Amino acid sequence: MEKIEEGHFPPKKAESEAASVQVETDNPAKKLARQLDFTGGVPGQALTVSLQEHANQIIQPEPQLQQHILLMPMQQAPVLPPQPLIRPLSMQSSSEAKDGTPKKPKQCNCKHSRCLKLYCECFASGIFCDGCNCANCHNNVENEASRQEAVEATLERNPNAFRPKIASSPHGTREEREEAGDGLVLPKHNKGCHCKKSGCLKKYCECFQANILCSENCRCMDCKNFEGNEERQAHFHGDHANNMAYLQQTANVAITGAIGSSGYGSPPVNKNRKIQELFSGSMIKDPVHRLGQFQQENQIKASVPPSLLSSIPGTRVSNAAALGPPKLNYRSLLADIIQNHDIKELCSVLIVYAQEAAKILSDEKDASLKQAKHHRKASYPSSGVGKVLRDDCSTGIQAESIMVDDSRLDGADVSAERPISPGTLALMCDEQDTTFTAAAAPPNDLTSLSNNTSSQLPHGQGRAEIYPELESIVLAQTRDCLKKLITLGEIKEKKCSLMVRDTDSGRQNNVSSNGIVNTVPPPPPPQQKVDSGTTAANTTRPKVHPPDGK
DNA sequence: GAGTTTGAAACT
DNA sequence: CAGTTTCAAACTC
Questions:
Q1: How far apart are CA A229 and CA A119, in angstroms?
Q2: pTM for this one?
Q3: Which of A20, A50, A456, A470 could bond A168 through an S-S bridge, CB–CB 3.0 to 4.6 Å?
């Protein structure tokens, strides 16, 4: 639902009627207010966002047009609003070349409307006809009176008649903004389209024409103008202009610091479609299925290594092309930095360090405990041990683990345990499942490592004490790795920023599937590669590779 | 370029 | 508000 901001947009009906009485006679203030309607925006309205994100939709007023607007009877205000003019949808698309270069303004061909109805694109956009092919045109200075009446009548019918149809709206609801994605503002048609036969993939559709996705405002049937639709992707396939706009848009997001996840757009949830789906159950109309399809695509994008993704035929072009300028499919700048094998490597390192730390710490604890045991020369109940250990622990989870450990202290199944907290254990188990077992030749066999670790802790004593220290070490390692990733991401961000500027200046760049310059990642800092033999206790040095060349 | 299709706008 | 008509752009041939 569109909300009209009071004070910005006058023509509620009563006001419109009141204004119509005095039209052309007095009250220039009201004229000024109405004039703003024609300019297609509201001062202060975040059209600049649209300007940035959809530069192909919004054109700076051409001198000729500006002059016409200045001449408009409704726009004899002393100062023109500063924001750019938004031309009607069809004129936007047809008055620009694919590369965004403004062409000659489109001329209407009206025959029966006298160019005094919204059928006329010139009238709808608030400009005089000039050089048009229209017949019996009244949208000119000579017919100012009749034109003014038409304007009033139009505004009476629809106070927003001269507002831009496409809103990228920070003024929208919070839900809409969240729906659009984190920090991104996706434009949508204020009223939505009502297409029935075009599938919203032809210029008949105002959404398609404006190069935006259909939204929940639309009441179209059999809509294919949603993210992830193959037919829609086919329409954009090979559209260089779209790719470039997408490239810049992606870069814009990156530059604004959106390093992270989930900038993906979401498919429109069309009310009408929902209704349709209740009766049809058609796969293509099913938002759940479509959402699933879309999510699946994104999951593929997210899970497949970028190198693989870009190598998949069709993936590269269709993704970028399908998105088009207004539709941003955001990929992290780290996507090309963090490779799958890096993740595995990182996990391996963490595990190895965990084991190494466990070994060191457990040796110390083991020795001291043995010494204590020896002095006492008496067996004490396991609860007593638990109590002692609990005194050293701070978390309930750890205490719980201790009890489990205690119950097994005298058991023979010590080898099955690892001196790691449950959370770490779970992570390692996951890694065992997903990383190492999946690898054809795992660099680190977790099973053997686990056994080794177990053997390093023959008695399982003192495990509780080493948990905090152990996790501290592991976390420190993780932190260092993340720091490096951040650094790499920042480097790439800078490169991306430079690339955008270079793109504007016409420099040819090799662009990857995510619209980011496909440059060789910056060489890792010298300290990234760590020599072997580093001890786990040495947390100050960043480590990527495990010790001993693993 | 003529004819057809399409969907927004206008009208009832 | 829904259905119908009018209209002009988009599209096809």
A1: 31
A2: 0.39
A3: A50
